Amino acid sequence: MLDFSFTEEQEDFKRTLKKLATEELLPSYTKWDKEKKLPRHLWKRLGDVGITGLRVPEQFGGSAADCVTTGIAAEEIGRGDFNLTYAVMLNALIGEIIATHASEELKEEFLPALASGEQIFGIAITEPDAGTDAAGIKTSAVDDGDVYVLNGEKSGISVATEADAFVVFAKTDPSLGNRGISAFLVSSRLDGVESSSYDDMGNVAISRGSVYFNDVRVPKNYLIGELHAGFKQVMNGFDLSRLLIGLQCVGAAVQSLDETIQHVKTRQSFGQPLATYQGVSFPIVTHYQQLEMLKWQAYRGLWLRDQGRSHTKEAATVKWLGPKYSQEAIHECLLLNGHYAYTKEMPLEQRLRDVIGLEIGDGTAQANQMVIAKQLIGKAYRSYQHSNQTEQVKG
Ligand SMILES: Cc1cc2nc3c(=O)[nH]c(=O)nc-3n(C[C@H](O)[C@H](O)[C@H](O)COP(=O)(O)OP(=O)(O)OC[C@H]3O[C@@H](n4cnc5c(N)ncnc54)[C@H](O)[C@@H]3O)c2cc1C
């Protein structure tokens, strides 16, 4: 049987979120960019409607939703406020990591605050000298009795200056390469944790920046998963975030196309609505269809994940092409709306800046193509790689 339909419950959820996104989030989307401020009250609002706890078990305050439903949330919130889609994606990724790999004690301590949207969590892998080659990180976690002592700098971290806690990757045995990396849950209130924000082109409200760990003493029970095995264990989560990122971007792009269709139906040139010209309607059709194809690849990937089947190739494809097709569509919409869309009075210029970031974050086009090549070509491709590089390709 082949069934492409959402359930009745998912359709209701989609309608509710579309309304919330376009009526509550969209009107203030550009405000947070101008004020360079993360609207924590709206993050919490998403918590109140269950968006921040979708991949958290019910006993810890979540709704234990499936991945397809989580994708619907990413897409619909993307219509209203692209930056608030981080509340879907980061929370699904980190919620899953904690629920799957952390001790019961840590789940009880952290998951309810994550699921309710009261606290914000970030994930810290990238470093100034290790981006795509994520296993090249240098942050160290040294065993010192009851604690691990963390030292190092993480860069490009979303919610760097806002997060209450981070999932941090550090080397616990540098001699083991990517097998010597472990994951820790680190409260940003611990002594020695500091952060600073960047002047990014987009995602301004997300306060991306660096997080510094200076002799941070992390209790041993804050290790997530097995010692030295954090990298491999936790990397599986990135197949989820990649699919969600694709849908976040598609949501922002489809909203832009919907707005543009309204515009070209009413705006006149040479005595006729713009929509009557093929030079205007064909680009709209092209982008709409590209996004439609991408969207179904994303939902298929999420469905495969829900079935416990392999979806790494699908996730990498969606992560590579989702932000790319979306920024191309938004760019076209901006042009079709004329000069007014080039001003900060309309959301299009901000959407373009915001979406471009995810052509880099969570793995560049090349990083994802490496993942796909590894899946499609296998050993012959791998033999061209330096040492074990493809194992290290960043999520
Ligand atoms: C919007 C955004 C959100 C982010 N959020 C987070 C976060 O929350 N947590 C976190 O840890 N990090 C985050 N990052 C960091 C992000 O994951 C890295 O920037 C990304 O992995 C790329 O690393 P880099 O910037 O060091 O680029 P590099 O790795 O230096 O790459 C530079 C260029 O070289 C290319 N390249 C590298 N190696 C190869 C190769 N072998 N073959 C071909 N091309 C190659 C890359 O594709 C890229 O085009 C975020 C970044 C952005 C922009």
UniProtKB/TrEMBL annotation:
Cofactors demanded by this protein: FAD
UniProt keyword list: FAD, Flavoprotein, Oxidoreductase
Domain Acyl-CoA dehydrogenase/oxidase N-terminal per the UniProt entry, residue ranges: 7-118
Matching SUPFAM superfamilies: Acyl-CoA dehydrogenase C-terminal domain-like, Acyl-CoA dehydrogenase NM domain-like
Annotated InterPro entries: Acyl-CoA_DH_CS, Acyl-CoA_Oxase/DH_mid-dom, Acyl-CoA_Oxase/DH_mid-dom_sf, AcylCo_DH-like_C, AcylCo_DH/oxidase_C, AcylCoA_DH/ox_N, AcylCoA_DH/ox_N_sf, AcylCoA_DH/oxidase_NM_dom_sf
Residue ranges of every copy of the Acyl-CoA oxidase/dehydrogenase middle domain listed in the record: 123-216
GO molecular function terms attached to this record: oxidoreductase activity
Pfam families membership: Acyl-CoA_dh_1, Acyl-CoA_dh_M, Acyl-CoA_dh_N
UniProt family annotation: Belongs to the acyl-CoA dehydrogenase family.
PANTHER family reported for this sequence: ACYL-COA DEHYDROGENASE
Protein name, UniProt field: Cyclohexanecarboxyl-CoA dehydrogenase
Species this protein is from: Geomicrobium sediminis
